[in-house]
Specification:
This protein is mostly beta strands. It is 7% helix and 35% strand. α1 runs antiparallel to α2. InterPro entries: Gal_Oxase/kelch_b-propeller, Gal_Oxidase_central_sf, Glyoxal_oxidase_N, GO-like_E_set, Ig-like_fold, Ig_E-set.
Length: 583
């Protein structure tokens, strides 16, 4: 068994004879702790800027929404039924064809095109699915058993709840009147007890619980905050122009069980049990951040400690966006304004929260923020001009940005290898268990248009971040999945068997678990990363194999019940993830 590193300096301090020695050793202890966390997330291949891989087949639909199902490694991809078209016919065994309403003609016709598929991220096999209600600009999340619960959408889909399980013969089960209010451009959040709340949506200034399957909500809860953050563009002598800028609000469960909610440029802390606003945070200056002036946001990694009762802080990151009037300028005046070029952070659990901002290498609107197993953030997709909307953006962001939150300001950003495929409005990005990032979608056309300046995009890619540099392959740790528990209750200690040619120590090691998000419109619902507390390291339990004992999170406030991608990170190089269930 290796010695716990932090215990040694503490022991020396306790035995020190003079106050001067105590002071010196205390400083060294603080420095060593900082160096330990930094060493576990070093740049192992600083000259490798990532690699793009174009997948050999596309699903026949544009990926407006995506989520990775646990264990089966099937990506659920779907767009919308509103155009009654895709590039994948509904197969005979899925017929009869459903009836769908066409947005342009307002006519309901038989629709024999496919709008949803399973896409296996390992075999690349496409399995058509049949969706009845319109999923356009909907929301979703995975339940405790890894099943997809999708909500809302357009017209007849706006009050719908949908269920999808990950099996070869599974397909959608839909309940069109389950929700009390219509939920179009709404946000769905998983709570500590495994229930879901859904917030907002166009003209829905409320929230509600997602009801049990086969039941309907009788009421919703009014939410004044969404009215207060709703933007209009005043035009003398004309009707006001609807800007909104508060659709798809960012909603995060924080470690005290409350919800941090950000819309437009303002944010609050809501007690979801009492339906009471506990505090209002300082506004974020510079512009609007939610749809259609769309930024991207993540809850930065939650770090756990050996002390079961230690305080867990939560910090939010918001990057990009646009001026509040950007959508009006694009839609009416046909001019595209520069996106915002800042990233802002705030510790939402602090008694005195303050936004701190720094500049990105390039402005970005409609980017996706992907939490990587190293604790870094990949900012990918988006545009430098405009806003969300049909043909309302230009100058695609081909280069992803790697953001390292543990580094000091001024050294956090790295521009990575560019793609050659524009990914703007209606794009997605999801972390995969092998450490690569699945990238798809992009459609700023009102329908499927291959002849447009930015055509409806069906192609899919995988991006390899710098930690997958070829020269690091031999150094990559591997979890022995068959010798490691795959589920545990809160607070339990779990031993993870790790194959590595190197000896392990706490200075160079992290164990992280990431909840797979539901991704659409630059929002990754329920995405969160937890850095687990390492209890013990047992070197060479047998040749070349070590055991890392970690403590599972103490409660659902830290890690809501469900499946996570668990990875061991050694000197900045993550293992392939294994699926792990906490409940």
């Amino acid at each position: 068994m290796s010695l716990s590193i932090p215990n040694l300096p503490l022991l020396i301090i306790a035995m020190a004879a003079t106050s001067k020695l105590v002071f010196i050793l205390a400083v060294l202890l603080l420095v060593s702790g900082h160096q330990a966390s930094a060493a576990a997330n070093d740049d192992p291949a600083p000259y490798f800027l990532g690699k793009w891989e174009l997948l050999p087949n596309n699903p026949g639909i544009s990926a407006m929404h995506s989520v990775l199902l646990p264990n089966v490694d099937e990506m659920v991809i779907f767009d919308a039924t509103v155009w009654q078209i895709s590039r994948l016919p509904l197969p005979d065994y899925k017929r009869p064809c459903p009836m769908h309403q066409n947005k342009a003609t307002n006519v309901t016709n038989i629709d024999c095109w496919c709008h949803s598929v399973f896409y296996n991220v390992n075999t690349l096999q496409v399995t058509p699915l049949k969706v009845i209600t319109d999923t356009w600009c909907s929301s979703g999340g995975l339940d405790v058993n890894g099943n997809l619960i999708s909500t809302g959408g357009f017209l007849g889909g706006s009050r719908t709840t949908r269920y999808l399980w990950g099996c070869p013969t599974c397909d959608w089960t839909e309940y069109p009147t389950a929700l009390k209010d219509g939920r179009w451009y709404a946000t769905q959040v998983l709570l500590a007890d495994g229930n879901f709340l859904i917030f907002g949506g166009r003209d829905s200034f409320s929230y509600e619980y997602i009801p049990a399957e086969r039941t309907e909500n009788a009421y919703s809860i009014p939410f004044q905050f969404l009215r207060d953050t709703y933007d209009l563009y005043r035009r003398p002598g004309q009707d006001d122009f609807r800007l909104e800028n508060n659709l798809y609000p960012f909603v995060y469960l924080v470690p005290d069980g409350n919800l941090y909610i950000f819309a437009n440029n303002r944010s609050i802390l809501l007690d979801p049990r009492a339906n009471y606003v506990l505090r209002e945070y300082p506004p974020l200056p510079g512009g609007a951040r939610n749809y259609p002036s769309t930024s991207t946001s993540v809850l930065l990694p939650l770090k756990l400690y050996r002390d079961y009762y230690a305080r867990v802080d939560a910090e939010v990151l918001i990057c990009g966006g646009s001026v509040p009037e950007a959508f009006y300028f694009g839609e009416v005046e046909k001019r595209l304004v520069p996106a915002l070029d800042d990233c802002a952070r705030m510790a939402v659990t602090s008694p005195d929260p303050v936004w701190t901002t720094e500049k990105m290498p390039t402005p970005r609107v409609m980017s996706d923020g992907v939490l990587l197993p190293t604790g870094d953030v990949l900012l990918i997709n988006g545009a430098e001009l405009g806003s969300a909307g049909w043909k309302d953006a230009d100058k695609p962001c081909f280069k992803p940005l790697l953001y390292k939150p543990s580094k000091p300001p001024g050294s956090r950003f790295t521009e990575l290898a560019p793609s050659d495929i524009p990914r703007m409005y209606h794009s997605v990005a999801n972390l995969l268990p092998d450490g690569r990032v699945f990238v798809g979608g992009s459609n700023d056309n009102d329908g499927y248009q291959e002849w447009a300046k930015f055509p409806t995009e069906l192609r899919l890619e995988k991006f390899s971040p710098p930690y997958l540099a070829p020269e690091l392959a031999d150094r990559r740790p591997m979890i022995l999945v068959d010798e490691t528990e795959k589920a545990a209750p809160y607070g339990k200690w779990v031993g993870i068997k790790v194959k590595s040619a190197e000896m392990l120590n706490e200075f160079d090691l992290m164990v992280t678990m990431i909840a797979p998000p539901f991704v659409t419109h630059s929002i990754s619902m329920n995405q969160r990363l937890i850095e687990l507390a390492i209890i013990e390291i047992k070197d060479d339990v047998y040749p070349g194999v070590h055991e890392v004992v970690v403590a599972m999170p103490p409660s659902g406030n830290i890690a809501p019940p469900g499946y996570y991608m668990l990875s061991v990170v050694l000197k900045g190089i993550p293992s392939p993830s294994m699926w792990f269930q906490v409940k």
